[in-house]
Amino acid sequence: MCPVREIISLPSVGPAEFKVAMRRIASTVTVITSMSGSAMNGMTATAVCSVSATPPCVLVVINRTNRSHALIESAGIFAINVLSEDQEHLAQHFALKSDNPFGDVDYHRGMTGAPVLEGCVASFECVVESQTRSGTHSIFVGRVVNAAERDEPPLLHTNGGFVKLESSHLM
Ligand SMILES: Cc1cc2nc3c(=O)[nH]c(=O)nc-3n(C[C@H](O)[C@H](O)[C@H](O)COP(=O)(O)O)c2cc1C
User: Fold this and answer.
1) For a Cys staple, 115 with which of 76, 98, 107, 134, CB 3.0–4.6 Å?
2) Overall pTM surpassing 0.85 (yes/no)
């Protein structure tokens, strides 16, 4: 093993090598919704994680070029909507930067005003506690002010595709 100073100066792996290895991670699929003034948006995201239970906090990792980034930064709120295995169409839709993101989507306004999608496995309505820049992305930690859940299987994403929990052992 190298001395500490040499370890710190080790070069990063290349982006291609990194992305190929990351494809092996299996994640639940969410739509992160946000609103600021009259603007509302939603974006598909897998970079979502529980942080702490006391206080209840979660984190989301969002590319700074995404439209959602500006909304969350300005309004300081967001909601995480965990998709069910019947909601792959929403994962596809919210990855496409639609001009009318909620035109054909069932939702209600949650406690913070951010849209909460109907039929999800779980939702977490959040107030931003902190924002940390890392590379091309921001990590937003949100304090959860409302949570809901349903007994439904979640949609999963791995190896570049969407899969259902019951069939995932076949991969
Ligand atoms: C399965 C999947 C997971 C994604 N996860 C993330 C994520 O965690 N963070 C992120 O910034 N973008 C993620 N994206 C990309 C965004 O969904 C995409 O760039 C979207 O168009 C951004 O929308 P917006 O610009 O309207 O906010 C993901 C896309 C897919 C299909």
Assistant:
1) 107
2) yes
